[in-house]
Amino acid sequence: MPQPEYETLLYEISNNVLTITLNRPDRLNAFNAKMGFELIDALDHADADDEVRAIIFTGAGRAYCAGADLASGGDTFDASSSDGTPADRIHRDGGGLVSLRIYDCLKPTIAAINGAAVGVGVTSTLPMDIRIASENARFGFVFARRGIVPEACSSWFLPRVVGISRATEWCYTGEVFDAEEALDGGLVRSVVPADELMTTARDLAEKIAHNTSAVSVALTRQMMWRLLGADHPMEAHKLDSRGVQYMGGTTDAREGVESFLEKREPNYQLSPTRDMPDYFPWWDEPEFS
Predict the structure, then answer these.
(1) Residue-number span of the structural domain to which 226 is assigned
(2) Which residues pair with 132 in a beta bridge?
(3) pTM above 0.90?
(4) Is residue 289 situated within a structural domain?
């Protein structure tokens, strides 16, 4: 499948792992509308490409993403002046559109946070499955210090990732904090030396890419995230039962068992572009909505 080219991103596939690099190093990879549209397009390409089994996000240069591009000065967050949207109409936050697209992604997502991740630079990582930080990384939910509110769906994601108390403290104070505090608060999985960040992320991504069924992972990812809002474990039981029934009759389930018994590497054949079950997406069905 041809690989897309972008103005604000690098898109590189190697050994079934896609690396998406935020690539505005002269602006500390600050987020703008173009980057938002390109991230959504990149995820559309990744979901449609069976070669891609896992996705790593990182930043070019010394920052991951320093937040929204403030080149417009005091009008940066004024939607009515930036895109002509009347003040009395609902404006769709660009970071939120990216977060929602990551949430819908069929591939596991890993953030390799190499430097400053502030504002949308950190909130857009919350719907990713795993975050790994360089010891140089810094984080900040600085919205109250800019006179706005948390965006990119972070008021939903952040309390679920780190708990309500830690989420409110970080958002109320707007302080920038280091990688060790992020680790202590559960925001990141681990903190590693800067020169080991991408190796650590790639090793993890390749474990997923080369040892698991792509359809199993795609279904599991959506089950885990969407069931966060369920009000009873019965919702999980209904969905689990349906998933095990479907997958249990596939060639991937047979291969998983036989490769284990034969003590060899598995060779899974199913793909998310062709072989998702008829009940996917289940959240559109009345029974599960």
Answers:
(1) 212-284
(2) 112, 190
(3) yes
(4) no
Tokens 């690989």 label which residue?
A: 3
**Which is nearest to 29 in space by CA: 133, 113, 107?**
113
* CA angle at 218 for the pair 35 and 98, rounded to the nearest 5°: 20
Q: Residue 41: which of 16, 17, 69, 9 has the closest Cα?
A: 9
Residue 4 counted as domain residue: no
**For the chain, what is the domain count?**
2
- At which residue do the structure tokens 């019965």 appear? 234
Could you say which of 208, 239, 272 is where a domain stops? Answer: 208
pLDDT in tens, the chain (289 residues): 788 999 999 999 999 999 999 999 999 999 999 999 999 999 999 999 999 999 999 999 999 999 987 666 655 666 665 555 555 566 788 999 999 999 999 999 999 999 999 999 999 999 999 999 999 999 999 999 999 999 999 999 999 999 999 999 999 999 999 999 999 999 999 999 999 999 999 999 999 999 999 999 999 999 999 999 999 999 999 999 999 999 999 999 999 999 999 999 999 999 999 999 999 999 987 665 4
**Domain match, 134 and 275 both:** no
- The stretches of 175-232 forming alpha helices (DSSP H) are 179-184, 197-211, 214-226
Assign residue 245 the CATH number of its domain.
1.10.12.10
| Cα angle, residue 226 at apex, residues 224 and 227 outer, rounded to 5° | 70
Cα–Cα distance measured from residue 51 to residue 211, given in angstroms and rounded to the nearest whole number: 14
